[in-house]
Amino acid sequence: MKKNIINKFLLGAAALVMGGMVSCEDYLTIYPTGSITKEDFWTTRNDVDNVRAAAYYQLTQQVGNILVWGEFRSDDLTLNKMDQTDYLRLQEAVLQPTKSMFDWSGFYKGINYCNEVLENGQRMIDEDIDPSFSTGDWMPIKAEMVSLRALYYFYLVRAYRDVPYVTHSVSTDTEAKASRIAATPGYAILDSLIKDVEAVQGSAAKNYGNSTDNKGRWTTYSISALLADLYLWRACLVKGISTKTDASGAKYAFEGSESDVVSTSLNKCVENCDVVLNYLKSEYDKKLNKANVPDTDPRRQQVFPLSLNTVSAMGGTTDNGYGSVFGTRNGDESVFELQFDGTNTVNGFLSTYLYGNGSGSYAAGIMKGNPVLFGQTAKVDPSDGLQKGYGKTDFRYCSSAYYEKQGQSDFPIIKNVATNISITDAADVSKGSQSSGMRSNSNQDGNWPVYRLADVMMMKSEALARIIENGGSASAREGYHLCNNLFARNNPGCDSLKTDNQNYCARLAQDWVATRSNSFKAETDTLLNLTYCERQREFIGEGKRWFDLVRQCEWSWSVNSEVVLSEWMSLTNTVKNRCRSLWSLYNPIYSDEMKVNGVGYGDGNGKLVQNPIWQKYMQD
């Protein structure tokens, strides 16, 4: 009987993948429904572990939304299949609330799994329901669920800004239908998430004993990466808060000192990044010591534990950096990634949206790489300004997109589909890749990286740039060094010593030279630009670029977002005009959700206010 109950609970998770919301009344619905009681279900540690696993699994099923919300409106990708008009409208900044791509129910179902574990796990401890399940067993699980719930909400805030904030479980359909909650300001949600996560971080596991759990479940170190990201976004949302308004047009009732919150948040971002960087470096050094790597080895000279690319004298240089992150799941550079095993969990979103072999041969999916990013290979360093893409020696030119021959105009994004990449000529990546291995649709087991070493490096670099711009004290040189180390790893064919070499890179040659920090303002502007260029090259196809642009617009809200976006990405005049307001950068609330809980809809008791920019597309 107990097994059947557990199966029914987990069947609910599977049903989410198959059908999404059952009806428009299913507001914030969660399984099990009233047919399964807490007394019947929550009786052993095994029950807790099953629902904990379901909470993680549910997030794997949101990778498609993460890509659509965090990438598809950006300058990373262009539409490949022109019959996909919904995505065409998305890129044209015409966001229609009736489209299911804006359905957030999958995230709230995951949140509710977390809430179920948090409430019932604690109840099991308080009531001593399972004597073999101790407080020591419970606290690390509690830390996991608080952190996972925070990540769910963090995606919602980045995509919608202000959303309903629910920290209690909903166990029956009746409760779900009655749950009508107004949106909480995004900055307030982040503040609450940070407090909750920091309160449990000390109880989180440090080592589960295997790489899959160490990278696929929250640890005290991956929680630091999450906190760094939360703090960075909190700083940008609070910056200029007195001039920002909610969806109804009312100014936010922000309490406290804006400057203090911004300053503290940025410094806390750096602090948490350092925790992760120090940990990864320690683990890297342990591995080198175990392998008896000599002190003269280049790997010993690294400040950051990046997998190095070494040019092969025989030609055909393997991109070790790519392989360590995307070829080898849960690798040394990984901090936290969503797990796909290719059997029970298949990452079909990559095949559908980016690249796969669904029709018998490999081809681009709905989206493909923007040719602008792949058209700058005449220069080694295209970072002299924004929107410059990949340079002549950047291995990511071939490991991010499938590049076969010079003159090619289409660039399918193969990241995470390819298992390995070999570059034909490290001195000129436009000659393409020599060989590559690919995952097939049927066993696509590419994990989804949420945080990895490069993320943490770039978060710290960005925070340092913003600290100085905000009038604080930080090292611009350190930020440059973070960017340049990542750039150097991916450009082993460039030269930082011989000025007469056609692949000479002045940027790397000048790294840590005192004359580079004469003017904080000039340096900071350049550092922020450099960080964003490096982020775009590094994270294409990972659901981050649009969120990066939104974060910059929030930070720079002294001018309208049309101006900010024009400086940071290419836009048509039509799209520029549609992106004048901060609210134009965020998703509309799904129309079915509005019909249940929207102000002016249904029985008149709704609480949600539609994004004002997209209200005109609501249907009666």
- The tally of helices reads 23
CATH topology of the domain at 2-204: Serine Threonine Protein Phosphatase 5, Tetratricopeptide repeat
The general outline is: globular
Mean pLDDT: 88
Give the number of DSSP strands. 11
How are the strands of the largest sheet arranged?
A: 4-9-10
Structure summary:
With 620 residues, the protein is mainly alpha-helical. Helices cover 46% and strands 6% of the residues.
Structural features, described:
The protein has 620 residues and is mainly alpha-helical. Among the domains are: 2-204, Serine Threonine Protein Phosphatase 5, Tetratricopeptide repeat, CATH 1.25.40; 311-450, no CATH class. Helix content is 46%, strand content 6%. It contains 23 helices and eleven strands. The strands form five sheets. The chain has a three-stranded antiparallel beta sheet with strand order 4-9-10. It has a two-stranded antiparallel sheet with strand order 1-8. A two-stranded antiparallel sheet has the order 2-3. Helix 11 (220-238) packs parallel to helix 16 (453-469), helix 16 packs antiparallel against helix 17 and helix 16 packs antiparallel against helix 19. The radius of gyration is 24 Å and the shape is globular. Mean pLDDT is 88; it is low at 1-36 and 514-520.
